[in-house]
Each structure stands twice: as structure tokens, then as C-alpha cells.
Amino acid sequence: MINDLIKLMKEQKAHLDQLLVLLQVQKEMIMKKDAFGLEGLVNKLSDCSKKIAQEEVARRKMLNNSSIKEFVSNAKNKDLTEIYSELSSTLEKVIFQKETNELLIKQQVSLNSKILEMMNPNRDMKTYNSYGNLSR
Asked: Which of 32, 61, 96, 110 lies in the 20 to 30 Å Cα band around 125?
């Protein structure tokens, strides 16, 4: 069972590495403002995420929904401990890259909306409110 788990975790790590590479490509496309490239990358990211989720479900079935952290500490298997630590660090990198990409996208959307607002300002009549400030 431990060998099957190690094999499954190695496959999961390979897919996480692939996801990390895709997220780094996504970051480069965000920085270059390549909207069409980003659109093409969506399916690849989705497929990779589905594979990782399927492997996670298989791992949970293998462990009967028990904690992987407890299982690794109780198993006292060097290979299992190594692959678990590699998997954890890769997962942290993936999460960090995903959050970075989301932040960059939000920045770009905010910038675009401000530019559009400057190009086409609100033409409504501005009036003063009860505090003496202009209301919009």
C-alpha cells in the first residue's frame, strides 16, 4: 500500500510541477497583456487541475479519508516522507503563483477601467450634496 501511495504521490507531484509551469506561463502572458494566449491557456490549466483532483480523490480513498500528515509520520518510510515534503513545497509554490497571477489580473483590470474612465468620463450633471461636496 505504501508503494502504491508513493507512486500516486509522485504522479501528483509531476502534475503539480506541470501546473506550476503553466501558471508561470500565465504570469508571463499577463505581463505581456496577451489576452488570446491567456484564453488558450485556460483549457490546459483546467485539464491539469482535473488530473490533480482525480489523484487526490484516489489518495483519499487509499487512506480511507485519514490525514496524510498522520499517515506519513506513522509510516516511518523515508521515501514517503521525502515525496510528501516535496509535494508540500510544490503545492505551496503553486498556491503562491496562483495568488500572484490573480493579483496581477486584478491590477490590470483596475488599470483598464481607470483608463476607460479617463477616456470616456461620466457626463452626468454634478451637484453639491448637503456637506458641500460634489456628488457623482
From this structure: 110
